[in-house]
Amino acid sequence: MTSDPSAIPLHHAARRGLLIVMTGASGVGKGTLREQWLAGQDVFYSTSWTTREARPGERDGIDYIFVTPAAFEAKVMADGFLEHASFVGNSYGTPIEPIEAALSRGQDVVLEIEVEGAMQVKARMGDEAILVFIMPPSLTELRRRLEGRATETPERIEKRLARAREEIREAHEFRFVVVNDDLEKAVEGLRAIQTAERARQLPENEWTPEDRAARLRADTLRSYALSDADLQRVVES
Ligand SMILES: Nc1ncnc2c1ncn2[C@@H]1O[C@H](COP(=O)(O)OP(=O)(O)OP(=O)(O)O)[C@@H](O)[C@H]1O
Ligand SMILES: Nc1nc2c(ncn2[C@@H]2O[C@H](COP(=O)(O)O)[C@@H](O)[C@H]2O)c(=O)[nH]1
Fold first, then answer.
1. Nearest protein CA to atom 27 of ligand 1, as residue
2. Whose CA is nearest to atom 16 of ligand 2?
3. Relative to the CA of 145, which of 28, 29, 90, 212 has its CA 20 to 30 Å away?
4. Which value, to the nearest 10 degrees, does the dihedral of the CA atoms of residues 27, 125, 96, 110 take?
5. Which pairing describes strands 49-50 and 90-95: parallel, antiparallel, or unpaired?
6. Phi-psi region for residue 160, left (φ > 0), alpha (ψ -120 to 50) or beta?
7. What is the model's pTM?
8. Given the CA of residue 180, which atom of ligand 1 is nearest to it?
């Protein structure tokens, strides 16, 4: 991954980059999927601002830009975020400037954010935002992942799970839903979505056989197939 425009192949220069927004409950595996999916790709991954404390091993400027509540608020007042939200006691936001610059130079952009922020991107960017909801196989498995990651206190895990129940009920608001059960299969789904959405920028007679296969695969991941009852089953399982 790089934000160096000189590294962009020439054939990308004419098109606008894709804006792909990964959202879903905390602990569902967004970061894990993103690392595998984007490895070796020339994609701009947006580093968020947050007011939360850095976890051991997290690097300022790489994992997050860690700021004080006052600095965060000043950025909000200056209209410096594409979206921002409060999540279980802390603020998180996507700085707008680097996103617009990357899209304009034809580089795909990936955001990894919680659901309220993703809804703001949907409202602000309309169809340009390709929204992908990452779904856990069950709430029990989500709890297991949060506990296994061991980054939160038991109390914070409960708060994140409570928020997850609400977030999962909103999954049909997003264009695609990828279930993160088998990691490889979920990564393959994300690759298909990216290829299919790139193909959408071209006339159909220019699609390659890979583009056509990706379009068919991506169609199987559209969220409209999900009913409220399907979502309720995940929340209750
Ligand atoms: N498909 C999977 N099967 C089993 N475990 C997984 C899978 N995907 C991710 N995990 C594990 O789940 C835990 C949470 O993953 P990760 O940190 O990527 O979630 P996240 O959605 O990015 O969380 P947050 O939103 O809080 O940053 C990690 O320990 C990770 O190794
Ligand atoms: N709305 C936004 N949500 C964000 C952003 N950056 C990260 N996040 C999400 O917050 C929760 C909690 O993150 P954690 O690192 O404390 O576990 C998680 O769902 C992230 O995806 C952002 O810029 N905006």
1. 26
2. 52
3. 90
4. 40
5. antiparallel
6. alpha
7. 0.90
8. 1
ipTM surpasses 0.90: yes
Q: Per residue of the chain (237 residues), give pLDDT as tens.
A: 444 444 544 444 478 999 999 999 999 999 999 999 999 899 999 899 999 999 899 999 999 999 999 999 999 999 999 999 999 889 999 999 999 999 999 999 999 999 999 999 999 999 999 999 999 999 999 999 999 988 888 998 999 999 999 999 889 989 999 999 999 999 999 999 999 999 998 999 999 999 999 999 999 999 988 888 888 888 889
Pocket of ligand 2 (CB under 6 A): 26, 30, 48, 52, 83, 85, 87, 92-94, 112-114, 117
The atom number, within ligand 2, closest to the CA of 52 reads 16
Of 50, 61, 46, residue with least CA distance to 99: 46
Does ligand 1 have an atom closer than 6 angstroms to the CB of 184? no
